[in-house]
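Structure tokens
________________
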Amino acid sequence: MGAFGRVEPSVRVCFAKEDRTIDEAVAKLRDIPTTSATAAVLSQSSASSNSPTQDTLRVVALQADLHWQDPEANRTSFAAKLDELLQEEAVDLVLLPEMFTTGFSMDTGKAEPLDVEGQGVTRKWMQHVAQKHGVALGGTVAVRDSEGEAWNRFWLATPEGDVHAYDKRHLFHLAGEGKHYRAGTERVEVTWRGWRLLLQTCYDLRFPGFVRNHGPEPYDAVLYLANWPAPRSPAWRTLLQARAIENQCFVAGVNRAGTDGSGHHYAGDSLLVDMAGNILADAGGTGSPAVLRATWHKSELTAFRTSLPFLQDADRFGIR
């Protein structure tokens, strides 16, 4: 099923006169309170799932080639991959690419119709898969609401039966996305199993103000799901690491592979990154399907932020 990423056994923290591993930092700094960033002003939605808190989050990213504008074929393909993958190992969070049922299509006639309650075939499918395997499952889908408006919607379904939604804020006008889809207006954070997860989609990656970590409870990880073309892969890789470093958080960047129906090629380059910008798992730019794995530790994140309290010095700003 593709290349597997390597997880480093220990992340290093840089001190003024010596290097210590995160484990040593945790032991030394356990009793020091964690600092937080100053508040920024923007519209934000925060949601929680009724789930137990855990220190580790076992993350899997599925980089895949997609069947062009064929939702049923894509759901069937991903269902088979997940059945195979999740019967062999314990996983908490599984992430799929942007518009995983259609590819990056501007034909909103192919967008999935939703009823007045926002329900659709793929949303129900994601709920079923999440509950069947006991994982949280994330992916974005081109949807059309009951009023006929189209959205690029990120759904995160949890095994508790909840489905959290984020509508992509920064639409990719270069490809005409802004002509065919509505832009979201809220930043969405989800708290699940004690982890605060920020949901983001593709082009959002280029706009650091919208993702800036802030507030008394900064998020722990940001999840980027994308259809990011191969010619701009260097920017994708660099910006994923930059977002991790500047926000002192884990980052998942899950891209598609192959060539879509519009002729755009995708190299993949999916990454799982830690809070210091270190790459934990890397699909590379082969343009082929891949499965990435990493285990994130919240205790390591807390120790890192305590030893390097940069977020408390962040500028105050607003977003319009």
